[in-house]
C-alpha cells in the first residue's frame, strides 16, 4: 500500500514537472498552444495566473490539490476542462478494452485447450505460430495488415470504427492476439499439468472422456492457477491499445493524446498521463495481490485434485 | 529453429541496412511523380510510393535510422542503468534509497511516460530517443542491481572480501563483467522491441518527420493508399517483424542456456 502511494506520488511529480521540461517559457507555451501571439503583458498575466513565479513545491502542491479534487486544468487548445474531455474518452477506451480482454480470454481458453489436449497437433502448431506472429509483429502493424487484408480484402469487419461495439471487431481481435501471446503459453502449461494430474489419470481409468475431464477439472483448476498471469502483459496491452486505437481511429484516449502531443496541449497530456498511470499502477498492484492470495503453490494441481475428488 | 535462425535473420537485417545503401545507390528521397505508386517490378523491387520514390531504397535507409536509433537508446539505457544499478548495491543509506527510487520508476507504464515526455519536449527523432532513454534505464538499473547482489554473495567474492579487496575492486573487476554478460541478453531483446516502438511513434507522427525515410513513417503513408497500393505495407511490416523475430529467437536460446547454468 505504501509502495503504491509512493509510486503514484512519484508519477504525479513527474507528470507535473513536464511543464518545466518544456523548451522555452511555459507561459509562452500556454499562449502559443492557443495559437495566439503573446504580448509581454499577456505573458506576465499568464505567469501570474499559473503561479509560475512561486517555488516549485508550492506550484506542485497547488496542482496536486486540484488534481485530487478532479480539476486537471483546461485544454490550451480548446479551453475545455481536461476532466470533461478525459471522461468522455475514457469510457470509449474502456469499452474497447473490455471487449478486447474478453476476446483475449476466449481465444486463450479455446486455443489453450485445443493445444493441451493434443500436444503437437494442428491446433497446437497453429497456436504456436500465432503466438510467434503476435510477438514479432507489433500491434499497430497487425492492425494495418488486418484492415488491408481482412476488411478491405475479405470484407471482414469494418474499415472505419466509430466507437460503437458494432465496429469493434477488428481492433478487439488485434488486441486479443496481443493478449494471447502473453497468456497462451502459461495457460497451456497449466492445463497440461491439470490433465496429467492424478485426478485426471484416475478419471480416465474410470472411462471419463477428455471433454468431461476438461470441463469438470482441468479448465477450472487451470483458470484459478492462471489468475496471477492475467497481469502479465498488462503493460503491453496498455501500450497496444493506444496504438490500436490510432490505427483504427477508435475515438478513445489514443487519438486524443496523439493530437494533444502534436498540438503541444500540455494539460491534456498531463491529465492523460496521470489518469493512465494511476489506473495502471493500481491494477498491477491488484494483480500482484491476487497472485499472492492464490498462494505460492501454483503447481498444486495434484493437491487441488484431492479437493475435487 | 532457435538461435541460429535468429542470428541469421538479425544479421541479414543489419547487413542489408548497413551495406544495402552502398550497393543500391540512389537517393531514397528522390521523387519522380511519373512513376508514382508502381507495384514491384525489376526496376523497383518493392515498388514506388505516392511520390515515385523507390521503396527498397527507403526501406534500407529507414532501417539505418531505426536500427542506429534503437542501438543508441539501448546502449545509453544500459549504461545509465549499469551505473545506477551498481550504486544501488551500496550499503545504507545510499543503496536502499536508490533502490526505492528505481523500484518506483519501474512500476510506471513506459509507453505512457514516453508519450508524456515527447509531449513536453516536442516531436522528432531526437526527442524520441531522449524520451525512450528516460523511460528505459530504470529497468536495467533494477536488473543489474539484482544480478550484482546475487553475485556479490557468491563464495568467490566472499573469498575476495576476506582477502581484503575493497568494494570498488570487487565490483569493477569481478561483479561488473559477469553482470554485463547477463545484461546483453536483455539488451538484445530490448533492441527489437525498441525498434518496433520507434516505428510505432513515427507511425503516429510523433517521431521521424516527412520526408525522412523511416519504417513507421512509411507505414503511415501506406495506410493512405491501402486499396490501390498494398505493397506499400509489406516492406516495412516485414522488416520490423523480421528484426523483432531475429532478436527474440536469438535470445531464447541464450535464455535457456542461462537457466541451465
CATH H-tier superfamily of chain B: MetI-like
Ranges of chain B where pLDDT stays below 50 over 5 or more residues in a row are 256-261
Give the largest chain-chain interface (CB within 8 Å). A-B, 47 and 44 residues
Report Rg of chain B.
22 Å
Mean pLDDT of chain B: 83
Shape of chain B: elongated
Report the order of strands and helices of chain B. Answer: HHHHHHHHH
List SSEs of chain A in N-to-C order: HHHHHHHHHHHHHH
Low-pLDDT segments of chain A: 298-309
Rg of chain A, alpha carbons: 24 Å
CATH architecture title of chain B: Orthogonal Bundle
Residue share in helix of chain B: over 70%
**Would you count the extended β strands of chain A for me?**
0
Number of domains as seen in the coordinates of chain B: 1
Most strands sheet of chain A: none
Number of helices of chain B: 9
* Gap between N and C termini of chain A: 38 Å
Strand content of chain A: under 5%
Question: Your description of this structure?
Answer:
The complex is a heterodimer of chains A (309) and B (261). Chain A has 14 helices and no strands. Chain A is mainly alpha-helical and 309 residues long. With 261 residues, chain B is mostly helical. In chain B, 74% of the residues lie in helices and 0% in strands. Chain B contains 9 helices and no strands. Chain B has helices spanning 3-23, 55-87, 94-106, 110-121, 125-152, 155-162, 167-203, 215-224, 231-260. The longest helix of chain B is centred in the C-terminal third of the chain and has 37 residues, at 167-203. The interface between A and B is large, with 47 and 44 residues.
Amino acid at each position: 500500500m505504501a509502495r503504491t502511494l509512493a509510486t503514484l506520488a512519484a508519477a504525479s511529480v513527474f507528470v507535473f514537472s513536464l511543464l518545466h521540461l518544456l523548451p522555452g517559457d511555459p507561459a509562452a507555451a500556454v499562449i502559443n498552444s492557443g495559437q495566439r501571439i503573446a504580448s509581454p503583458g499577456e505573458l506576465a498575466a499568464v505567469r501570474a495566473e499559473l503561479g509560475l513565479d512561486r517555488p516549485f513545491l508550492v506550484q506542485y502542491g497547488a496542482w496536486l490539490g486540484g488534481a485530487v479534487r478532479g480539476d486537471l486544468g483546461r485544454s490550451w487548445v480548446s479551453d475545455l476542462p481536461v476532466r470533461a474531455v478525459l471522461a468522455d474518452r475514457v469510457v470509449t477506451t474502456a469499452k474497447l478494452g473490455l471487449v478486447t480482454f474478453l476476446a483475449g480470454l476466449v481465444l486463450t481458453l479455446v486455443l489453450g485447450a485445443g493445444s493441451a489436449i493434443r500436444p503437437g497437433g494442428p491446433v497446437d502448431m497453429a497456436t504456436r505460430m500465432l503466438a510467434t506472429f503476435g510477438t514479432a509483429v507489433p500491434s499497430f502493424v497487425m492492425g494495418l495488415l488486418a484492415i488491408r487484408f481482412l476488411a478491405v480484402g475479405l470484407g471482414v469487419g469494418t474499415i472505419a470504427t466509430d466507437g460503437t461495439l458494432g465496429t469493434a471487431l477488428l481492433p478487439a481481435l488485434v488486441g486479443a492476439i496481443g493478449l494471447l501471446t502473453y497468456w497462451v503459453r502459461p495457460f497451456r502449461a497449466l492445463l497440461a499439468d491439470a490433465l496429467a494430474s492424478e485426478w485426471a489419470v484416475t478419471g480416465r481409468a474410470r472411462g471419463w472422456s477428455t471433454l468431461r475431464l476438461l470441463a469438470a477439472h482441468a479448465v477450472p483448476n487451470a483458470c484459478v492457477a492462471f489468475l496471477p498471469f492475467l497481469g502479465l502483459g498488462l503493460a503491453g496491452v496498455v501500450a497496444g491499445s493506444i496504438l490500436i486505437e490510432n490505427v483504427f481511429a477508435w475515438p478513445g484516449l489514443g487519438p486524443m493524446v496523439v493530437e494533444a502531443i502534436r498540438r503541444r496541449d500540455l494539460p491534456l497530456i498531463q491529465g492523460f498521463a496521470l489518469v493512465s498511470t494511476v489506473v495502471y499502477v493500481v491494477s498491477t498492484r491488484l494483480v500482484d495481490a491476487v497472485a499472492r492470495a492464490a498462494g505460492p503453490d501454483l503447481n498444486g494441481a495434484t493437491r487441488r485434485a484431492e479437493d475435487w475428488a | 529453429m532457435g538461435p541460429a535462425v535468429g542470428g541469421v535473420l538479425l544479421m541479414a537485417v543489419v547487413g542489408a541496412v548497413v551495406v544495402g545503401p552502398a550497393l543500391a545507390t540512389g537517393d531514397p528521397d528522390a521523387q519522380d511523380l511519373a512513376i508514382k505508386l508502381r507495384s514491384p517490378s525489376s526496376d523497383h523491387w518493392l515498388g514506388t510510393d505516392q511520390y515515385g520514390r523507390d521503396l527498397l531504397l527507403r526501406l534500407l535507409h529507414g532501417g539505418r535510422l531505426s536500427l542506429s536509433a534503437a542501438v543508441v537508446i539501448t546502449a545509453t539505457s544500459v549504461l545509465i542503468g549499469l551505473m545506477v544499478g551498481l550504486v544501488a548495491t551500496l550499503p545504507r543509506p545510499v543503496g536502499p534509497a536508490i533502490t526505492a527510487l528505481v523500484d518506483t520508476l519501474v512500476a510506471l507504464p513506459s509507453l505512457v511516460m514516453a508519450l508524456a515526455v515527447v509531449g513536453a519536449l516536442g516531436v522528432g527523432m531526437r526527442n524520441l530517443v531522449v524520451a525512450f532513454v528516460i523511460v528505459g534505464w530504470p529497468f536495467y538499473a533494477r536488473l543489474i542491481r539484482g544480478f550484482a547482489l546475487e553475485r556479490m554473495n557468491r563464495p568467490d567474492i566472499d573469498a575476495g572480501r576476506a582477502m581484503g579487496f575493497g568494494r570498488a575492486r570487487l565490483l569493477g573487476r569481478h561483479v561488473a563483467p559477469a553482470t554485463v554478460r547477463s545484461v546483453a541478453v536483455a539488451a538484445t531483446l530490448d533492441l527489437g522491441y525498441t525498434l518496433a516502438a520507434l516505428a510505432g511513434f513515427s507511425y503516429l507522427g510523433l517521431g521521424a518527420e516527412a520526408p525522412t525515410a523511416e519504417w513507421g513513417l512509411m507505414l503511415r503513408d501506406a495506410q493512405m493508399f491501402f486499396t490501390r497500393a498494398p505493397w506499400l505495407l509489406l516492406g516495412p511490416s516485414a522488416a520490423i517483424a523480421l528484426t523483432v523475430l531475429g532478436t527474440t529467437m536469438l535470445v531464447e536460446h541464450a535464455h535457456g542456456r542461462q537457466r541451465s547454468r
